[in-house]
Amino acid sequence: MARDPRHDVLFEPLRIGPKTLKNRFYQVPHCTGFGVQKPRSQARYRATKAEGGWAGVCTEYCAVSPESDETPFISARLWDDGDLRALALMCEEVHEHDALAGVELHHSGVHCPRREYRLPALAPSQLASDYLLVTPKAMEKEDIRRVQADWGTAAGRAREAGFDIVYVYGAHSYLPMQFLSPFYNRRTDEYGGSLENRARFWLELLEITREAVDGECVVASRIAVEALGPAGVEIDDALAFVRLADHLVDLWDVNVGSALEWSKDSGPSKFFPQGHQLGWTGRVREATAKPIVGVGRLTDPDRMAEIVSSGVWDVVGAARPSIADPFLPRKVEEGRLDEIRECIGCNICIPKADPGGNIGCTQNATAGEEFRRGWHPERFEPAENRDRDVLVVGAGPAGMECAIVLGKRGFRRVHLVEAEEKIGGIMRWIPQLPGRGEWGRVLDWRAIQLAKLPNVEVIAGARLSAAAVREYGAELVVIATGAYWSPTGVNRVTHEPLAGADASLAHVLTPEQVMLEGKRPPGKRVAVYDCDGYFLGPDLTEKLALEGYRVELVTPFEELAPFTHETLEQALLRRRLHEAGVRLHRGVALDSVEGGRDEVGERFELAADALVLVTQRISDEALYLELEAGGEALRAEGIEALYRIGDCVAPQLIADAIFDGHRLAREIDAETPAVPLPWRRERPLPEAVSADA
Ligand code: SF4
Asked: pLDDT per residue over 510-524, tens digit each?
């Protein structure tokens, strides 16, 4: 297919300093969990994006010295020549695909955990971090000179490693921004006070970086042009800084937010639409004629083309859209728009990468698996046993993903059979929750790909019994029947049902009953009991509040939905529920539908007309267990193997259920497909001691 001429502007080359970007797609720095500890994973992960058409591909933040030790978070590092060699691998692989490699040189300043380094953090002034439990040393002049010298050395190593783009990273309220922002900088010397003085440290870093790369590399700088809070600068000061620094910068990488307000940058889709940063980053053109790259979870090429044509940005930056689809630019170029696997803005990639140690993605099961498992997002090996027919029972996220990969691996016939009238499993109703519409892309993308595969047939509205599965005629059977929310309130606190909880009663409801069956509380006062700790409890609460119920959320956790901290949604959810008039009861463990105990052991009771149970899910494994128990009967019907995947094995994140379905299909011709093949591990060997040690 040919490219839509409307998107031509996205494929115009762009000169940036001494280099040329071959098009306008650019993977901005983002974490992976690889750093320099997993150099081959780092290299293959970034190179896959380069292969997919991104013209520039960057590392995550890359500490210039041990004083900016991010442990327990995982950053890249250029502390010594060993780090240089580790990152040189990435440059080599990225260059094979005609893309530029960028490195985001970094110093955390006050926001530095230093679990390895152990000595004090540094900052312009001795003011405690608003982000971590750190009180820093106020930098003396010699500290400033040392950090700047380390920066210059790291920039020199970056050039030697083969990087084309070297950053001075000042966004997310890290050290250069800490000097620029009066919130952090109370100095009275030439580095504090006026804007010119507060800008001095950053300007000197830019000069040092330019000197170190000696005209061979692009000098980029990343700046949050509006902190949207106190921890940075407001747009007018940011524009003034851009004017001051413009002669030293070849590429401006612009965003918003701060370390504490990172959610304003990597905005979850529930709260932020695509392109939400443009109101601020779109103003940077007022201060510079240099190339600008901006971000905003953009996946729509029409919107991208519109932004570039308007001139506010020259380059479309992406972290999450490039994780969800490393081949997005190629697909735009080849007019394969319906194959773009669009990011859903769930932010599960954040806990997977950092501190998880291996990036993962809801939409893209291959993210982070490029080296260690050898998975390519667009290439699938023909299966050894593809002359078999496969029956996949259950068309939820795991079943759909499994059927797609089996189809791409060339199986003779793949039947994906769903009991309900519509495919999608939980994705039939999760996108109906307030603000979760973009999550519907999990189903939409898979439905489109399934329809394209001639060897895959989707059959909905057919509930198969064990006998029907046995007689179906497939040699390989995969059960993907999902999970359901406990109708009796079995929960993490007591490991028992709640006394009196029975979802067949009018006043006890499960999430599925609310979302799929339209069951509603018999009165206006509703309690939601959330033992899950992720998005569903708050979302159901919000939904019912929007429908006019007086909702109170009860949770045994010390705070609302603690896992949503990791997806950057927690503070936003809290605010949203507060606005909806929801009362929150934390640290309360119910033992019955009547009440329970609060955190100090006092009796807790709530006057409500109904209780919604978001306690725990239970695998829907009856079909699998019945089939599995009849091993002989399976063989008699010609079934060679029976597997189960996704929530049917154990209730899990959507990302993990999809991964499970993908993995089985990738390895279904291995010796024991039910057990994952070992992956290639990267580990330091005894002789691999730092070059400077
Ligand atoms: Fe997007 Fe979610 Fe994938 Fe992150 S995990 S890239 S937010 S789909």
From this structure: 999 999 999 999 999
- How far, in Å, are 34, 166, 204, 218, 602 from residue 159 at the CA level? 21, 8, 19, 10, 63
pLDDT tens column, 593-646: 999 999 899 999 989 999 999 999 999 999 999 999 988 889 999 999 999 999
- Cross-strand bridge partners of residue 392: 416, 478
Ligand 1 neighbourhood includes 361 CB (under 6 angstroms): yes
549 classed as catalytic: no
- Stated as kind and residue range, the H or E segment containing 4 is none
The pLDDT of residue 693: 45
Would you say 241 and 202 are in contact if contact means Cβ atoms under 8 Å apart?
yes
Nearest residue to 610 via CA among 520, 485, 545: 520
CA–CA separation, 136 and 577 (whole Å): 35
pLDDT (average), residues 149-157: 98
Q: What does the pLDDT look like over 218-258, one tens digit per residue?
A: 999 999 999 999 999 999 999 999 999 999 999 999 999 99
> Atom 6 (ligand 1): residue with closest C-alpha?
320
- Rg over alpha carbons for the chain, rounded to the nearest Å, is 27
Kindly report which listed range (445-449, 550-554, 601-605, 652-656) carries the lowest average pLDDT score: 601-605
- Cα separation, 388 vs 393, whole angstroms: 16
The secondary structure of 55-121, three-state, reads: CEEEEEEEECCHHHCCCCCCCEECCCHHHHHHHHHHHHHHHCCCCEEEEEEECCCCCCCCCCCCCCC
The finding on whether 32 has its CB within 6 A of some atom of ligand 1 is no
The pLDDT tens digits of the residues spanning 635-691 come to 999 999 999 999 999 999 999 999 999 999 999 999 999 999 999 999 888 877 775
pTM of model > 0.70: yes
The span from the CA of 174 to the CA of 161, in Å, is 24
| pLDDT beyond 70 at 177 | yes
Q: Residue 61's beta-bridge partner residues?
A: 104
C-beta of 324 in contact with ligand 1 (< 6 A) = yes
- CA 135 from centroid of its chain's CA atoms: 30
Ligand 1, residues 362, 364, 442, 566: which to mutate, most atoms within 8 A of Cβ?
362
Report the percent of the chain where pLDDT is more than 70. Answer: 100
Query: How many Cβ atoms are within 10 Å of 345's Cβ, its own excluded?
Result: 27
Q: SS3 sequence, 304-364?
A: HHHHHHHCCCCEEEECHHHHHCCCHHHHHHCCCHHHCCCCCCCCCHHHHHCCCCCCCCCCC
Token output for 33? 């969990």
Which run of H or E residues covers position 479? strand 476-479
Parallel, antiparallel or unpaired: strands 14-16 and 19-21: antiparallel
First to last CA, the chain: 55
Q: Nearest to residue 24, comparing CAs of 45, 48, 53, 47?
A: 53
Cα of 39 to ligand 1 centre, how many Å?
23
CA atoms within 13 A on the CB side of 167: 31
Say which residue the tokens 């750190």 belong to.
Answer: 134
Amino acid at 575: R
